[in-house]
Amino acid sequence: MTTTEKIESLIHVRFAPNGTVMEIGERPQGVDAQSWFNYLSNKTSNSYQALAGGRGMFRLPRPQVDELKAAISSGE
Q1: Is the Cα dihedral 65, 37, 13, 57 positive or negative?
Q2: How many whole angstroms separate alpha carbon 52 and alpha carbon 69?
Q3: Is 68 helix (H, G, I), strand (E, B) or coil?
Q4: Which one, out of 20, 29, 31, 40, has a CA that is 20 to 30 A from the CA of 75?
Q5: How far is CA 8 from CA 47, 63, 66, 70, in A?
Q6: In terms of pTM, does the model score above 0.90?
Q7: In terms of Cα–Cα distance, which of 48, 49, 64 is closest to 1?
Q8: Local structure of 3: helix, strand or coil
C-alpha cells in the first residue's frame, strides 16, 4: 500500500428530516446529492458511518474517491 492509498478522505453527508440527502462532499459537477450518496452506498462497503443530528460520513482512500468520481461522471 502506498502513502497515497493510506490517506483517508472524509465525505460528509447532511440529511433532511425526511431522510433525503441535502448536502454531500466531493460531489462531481452535474450529479445531484442523493444520486452521489446512492452511488457511494452501492459501490463501497463498510465505509459509511452514521452520526447524530441527521449527519453521516464516508471514509475512503483518496484514490478510491477519485475513481468513483470519474466512474459516475462517465455514466458507469
Answers
A1: negative
A2: 27
A3: helix
A4: 20
A5: 11, 9, 12, 18
A6: no
A7: 64
A8: helix
Indicate the residue type of 6: K
**Cell reading at 13:** 453527508
pLDDT tens-digit readout, 4-37: 556 789 999 999 999 999 999 999 999 999 999 9
29: left (phi over 0), alpha (psi -120 to 50) or beta: beta
CB count, 10 Å around CB of 76? 9
Amino acid of residue 24: I
- Its sign, for the CA torsion 11, 16, 18, 20, is negative
The whole-number pLDDT of residue 75 equals: 85
